[in-house]
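Provenance

Sequences were taken from public entries as deposited. Structures were produced by running a predictor on each sequence independently, with no templates supplied. The record for Diadenylate cyclase from Peptoanaerobacter stomatis is shown for reference.
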Amino acid sequence: MWYDEFIYPFIDLITHLKLTDILDILIVAYVSYKLYELIKETRAEQLVKGIFIIVISLKLSEVLQLHAVNWILRNTVTVGLIAIIIVFQPELRRILEYIGRTKLIMKSDEETAKQKVDVINETVQACLSLSRQRIGALIVFERETGINEIIQTGTKLNAIVSRELLINIFIPNTPLHDGAVVIRKNSIIAAACFLPLTENKNLNKELGTRHRAALGITEKSDCLSLVVSEETGYISIAIKGKLYRDLNEERLRNMLSQNLIRNNNNNVLQLKKGGKNDETKS
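Predicted structure for Diadenylate cyclase:
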């Protein structure tokens, strides 16, 4: 029977399984899982499902000897590989950037947790003040992936992060208020930067340009974006294409700490429980 071609080799494989084979399987499983984490909730997720269906159909057409269908599918796969590289370039770039960010050795000049906590404290206090005054703001924290192309669209500052400076930047009708502030390590590297807008068509219509820009930059890099709405005063955070809205002070500090401080200690900021949070997926 045709299924003997699958059953007997499978039984033979199980009976002759070695330690190296198990290690091989675990490595493939881990890599597959990490790749799935990178592409889930993106266009590439639907692409993988489509490829899986085509591969299954291709094998079935060979077994059932459907020669015309098999020929069409084989040619579709050949042409499709080129189309995938062109159409899904952003997703492929994201995967390669993730691989490039993986470190075997920690940087010797890594910022201390205390310095990063000071940056978070100053930023939180600035956002709370802007929120009370209903002044819009957009702040981007650069992480492992460099965003020099974004920084070059704004005005270079190279200033120490302080609540007074952040508040002053976003005061309406000032030269730098329109655009995003980019924070690199412990410095405000630039202000009035232009960000790419999200490509998500299902986003809530009530969200304005700031929120769409905050999501857009997190879809193209690993940075974190912080938004203050001038209409509602709500403070939101965008991470990996997801928007977390209406954060209170404790929740805001907690999310910034978790995502910006390496080897984060939950006691560093002495946070209390609570904090309303709505999540909008990109």
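Residues 4-101 form one domain.
The longest helix spans residues 19-39.
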